[in-house]
Amino acid sequence: MNDSRKEEIVRDLLVKRPLSDYSNEELFDLNLHSEYDCRRYVTKIFYPGYPSLTSGQKGGLSRKTNRLWRRIYDGYFDVRTRGGRGIYLVNKGYGCDLGHLFAQDKQEAESLAKLLFGCLVDEGSYSNIRITFIRLGSLHELKAFNRKIVDNLKKEIQGAKDSIIHYQERMAQRQNRLDALNAVESSILASALTDVQPEKT
């Protein structure tokens, strides 16, 4: 769905009696998947460039947000639950995004998730792999969805490498200090042994 069509539908949904009936797929494809998403979009459309809102504008924003989310929610939730042909987010448990995949339907997405990401969970813990349908779309969109996760993983890997270098340097510094202390003790001990040697007669 292009931006102009999205705005057209949103503006229609915000009037008292919308002129059109929209399919659940169309509502899902607005990509407004939370009340927060709706609030951000309403702000963008109706209050662009406002550094701060008056009390009246804040009231209008809240009313528009609530109405939009109420009219989207049932259709959105239906499609999210059923799944469809498009992009799925794969999680490990509730907190770790493993990546996105493309599938023809929810059943295929579940099978692919276990096949492709099963190696990232403990054996026998496939139930920890969760999928969420997030976009009606095509395979061509998959790379764009995974880009953020890829970038974050690269940053984490580089951060780990930097940490290794940092701790290797710390280890080397402490080893040098330890070697210096050992040398000092050895030197003092050698000097002490020389001092207590018996005189030759």
Order of helices and strands: HHHHEEHEH
What's the gyration radius in Å?
Answer: 31 Å
Q: Roughly what fraction of the amino acids lie in strands? A: 5-15%
Q: Structural class of the secondary elements?
A: mainly alpha
Span of the ends, CA to CA: 106 Å
Biggest pleated sheet: 3 strands, antiparallel
Proportion of residues in helical segments: 55-70%
Gross morphology is elongated
Residue ranges: pLDDT <50 for 5 or more in a row?
none
Strand order of the largest sheet: 2-1-3
Protein traits:
3 strands; 6 helices; three-stranded antiparallel sheet; 201 residues; mainly alpha
Can you walk me through this structure?
The chain is mainly alpha-helical. Among the domains are: 3-82, no CATH class; 86-139. The protein is 61% helix and 11% strand. It has helices at 3-14, 24-28, 35-46, 55-82, 106-117, 142-195; strands spanning 86-92, 96-103, 129-136. A 3-stranded antiparallel beta sheet has the order 2-1-3. Helix 3 crosses helix 4 (55-82). It is elongated, with a radius of gyration of 31 Å. The N and C termini lie far apart (106 Å). The model has no long low-confidence stretch (mean pLDDT 90).
Short description:
The chain is mainly alpha-helical. It has helices at residues 3-14, 24-28, 35-46, 55-82, 106-117, 142-195, and strands at residues 86-92, 96-103, 129-136.
Helix-strand blueprint:
Elements lengths: L2 H12 L9 H5 L6 H12 L8 H28 L3 E7 L3 E8 L2 H12 L11 E8 L5 H54 L6
Helix pairs in contact: 3-4
